[in-house]
């Protein structure tokens, strides 16, 4: 590349390998232009659907992203016949302006995507562009076969409601975690989330819509085509509506007024839906709270209180155009957090500057944190925790679930909040951030420095090599030559 970069391997735990997790200035210095770096990743027992993306500034918005699938023994193997690269569907938003120009403009409305794609194809204006196999991704099936579909949302901001016309979907995994089969007609998928489902090709031969309207941006949608190879007729576009969406009044106000002023939002917490047509009450929409793990895994300390509890309140930052957690807008340090732990023996919160917002977590403890919004901005923020799969033990004010709660590495939160638990069994500095990429660079992030004394030495220490150690030396030399204005945010 002609720019500095770093790559994050989203959802992979990186045991004893935090140095290759990827977020710039948290676990590494960026790779300088025209240089190379080898990421070596121990997979352990992880299998399933993941993805990779740039983790320096807003690079992944411009296309530095792609799917990862780890194929090993699958407990759901008997539910499907076909699972290959053709069954991976990547849905994402698309911009006509570079992310750097959008970020530097300070104009919130430019963060609104121009369109979206499925596997790289889409239509800017569905009303003026024909639907065919040139303009839309086409997935071909044979009647009677069952397909394991893997859907990845690699968007910068867009959330989608995903469905396949006239076909049921049996959800069997979320964020790489196998779940009990759950049959639905539609499911919502937030940025960075993954959903695996079984699709049975059991309809009359023909062509059907794969629909993915945005749920947080009005009047934006993308589609693909499901085509039966058994159909003897020439191609014909599917019948019926090719798009529907349901966007709250609050979301419309968000895009209208922005978030650059504390007084700019005039929204109610009541979400009045606008849609092109009323949602069919017979349609089953996935309830994420019911996505129980297949192995019935309980959260840590299921019968007692967590060892450490954190309340994380997020909202608008003090400066215009920023976000904050507990009134702290995250700013990355000049030297990566991991390197600072190695060099300076940093073991307490006060060893880090306030703007780094780094919280020390003790080793082998059950951590519970409640993350909720406090700015009365009714959009869903997809929060991602690096280095772990967490249990979502409570959504809003619902009854807590300490028996078989959903698990994942991305969860949506707003003012009602969500309560999460995980065990500190993986020493490292792990990034917690909103996966709306614009909000990340605006400071909606913090770092959990997990067991820093174990990072340096012991059976779970992070083993770095000379290639990693040279990253900062090379980057500092490049930055001096390029000029300080070349240092990217985050």
From TrEMBL:
Taxon lineage:
Eukaryota, Fungi, Dikarya, Basidiomycota, Agaricomycotina
GO MF term (any one):
copper ion binding
Name of the protein this chain belongs to = Laccase
Q: What are the alphabetically sorted keywords of the record?
A: Copper, Disulfide bond, Glycoprotein, Metal-binding, Oxidoreductase, Signal
Record Pfam families: Cu-oxidase, Cu-oxidase_2, Cu-oxidase_3
Give the matching PROSITE patterns.
MULTICOPPER_OXIDASE1, MULTICOPPER_OXIDASE2
Locate the Plastocyanin-like domain: which residues? 4-71, 85-229, 331-453
Q: What does this protein do?
A: Lignin degradation and detoxification of lignin-derived products.
Protein family according to the UniProt entry: Belongs to the multicopper oxidase family.
Question: Subunit structure, per the record?
Answer: Homodimer.
